[in-house]
Design goal:
Layout (H helix, E strand, L loop, with lengths): L1 H7 L12 H26 L5 H18 L4 H8 L3 H13 L2 H14 L1 H24 L45 H15 L4 H20 L5 H24 L3 H37 L1
Helix pairs in contact: 2-6, 2-7, 2-11, 5-9, 6-7, 6-8, 7-8, 7-10, 8-9, 8-10
């Protein structure tokens, strides 16, 4: 009888963190709030009207500075790898699919594993994004692939945006072709790599984190999407924001920011059903009008 009772006793062992219902719910809300904030970032970035002349001029200044520093090698990198179709296919796919999908995957993992550490990285990303928006509006800069708009053709090839084989999904309002400085295509992947490094002791995951940033650096350069200095600027901004957010956390100044974010998430959760229902009704009305 005792053995039978033992068989039917519920296990008192805690569930693994990735099966904890409360953790999953918190992670979902954190990710929804983050996506909402990033949507604002993308609209602000994409809303900058093109200023081709000043953007291309600034790109030429970066080339001149890199030449003085002896690091202008992006064109040579691309010329070498353009000879190998398979490597360029890999580079194109890494650039297109190794950024936002990877950030979403790592963000989801960390939001479930440790929401407080996820919030730290999220705040670093949003603070750096705010600095990026200011730079994109005040200092629009052309990437290597668009330098030819200056009338000087260095020989850079646009292998991602100019290829029919690459699917790089970006809605029109999000696009800003001259948002090259700083590069968060590299900076945010470096942030994600740092997030992996400090949140695990696994040598394999840490090796993956390092490889992830190195691979993205290579892919960005050989596809003609950023200069070295663009990427270094992105990494620098992220590093400064990491230090700033850590300092604000220590002195408790980030509590108000957290309260605002939690308010936004709560508001979104409360009104999400109404928003979806309204969108469905509008779509039905639009469909009826079109059929009529």
């Amino acid at each position: 009888m005792q053995r039978l009772q033992f068989c039917f006793q519920q296990s008192t062992e805690p569930r693994p963190w990735f099966l904890d219902g409360h953790r999953l719910a918190v992670a979902f809300l954190e990710m929804v709030g983050t996506i909402f904030a990033l949507g604002i970032y993308f609209f602000a970035r994409g809303g900058r009207p093109d200023d081709i002349e000043s953007s291309v001029g600034r790109g030429l200044q970066i080339i001149d500075l890199e030449k003085r520093l002896g690091i202008f090698a992006e064109l040579h990198w691309q010329e070498v790898f353009l000879q190998y179709d398979i490597l360029m296919t890999i580079a194109n796919q890494v650039y297109a699919w190794g950024h936002y999908p990877v950030l979403a995957l790592i963000g989801t993992w960390l939001a479930i594993k440790d929401p407080s550490r996820f919030r730290f990285l999220r705040n670093v990303m949003l603070l750096s994004g705010a600095i990026g928006i200011a730079s994109y509006w005040l200092l629009p800069t052309a990437p290597p692939r668009l330098i030819h708009l200056s009338g000087i053709d260095f020989g850079f090839v646009d292998t991602v945006h100019g290829s029919a084989e690459v699917v790089y999904l970006q809605p029109g309002p999000f696009i800003n072709n001259f948002a090259a400085l700083p590069s968060f295509h590299f900076g945010w992947i470096a942030l994600a790599s740092a997030g992996i490094w400090v949140n695990t002791k696994s040598p394999w995951l840490r090796a993956l984190a390092v490889a992830m940033s190195l691979l993205m650096w290579w892919a960005i350069v050989v596809t003609g999407n950023h200069f070295f200095l663009d990427m270094l600027a992105g990494a620098f901004v992220v590093t400064v924001c990491w230090i700033a957010v850590a300092y604000l956390d220590r002195i408790g100044m980030s509590n108000r920011i957290k309260e605002l974010l939690h308010f936004g998430i709560s508001y979104l959760r409360t009104n999400l059903k109404n928003m979806v229902r309204r969108c469905i009704n509008n779509f039905r009305s639009y469909s009826r009008d079109k059929l009529a």
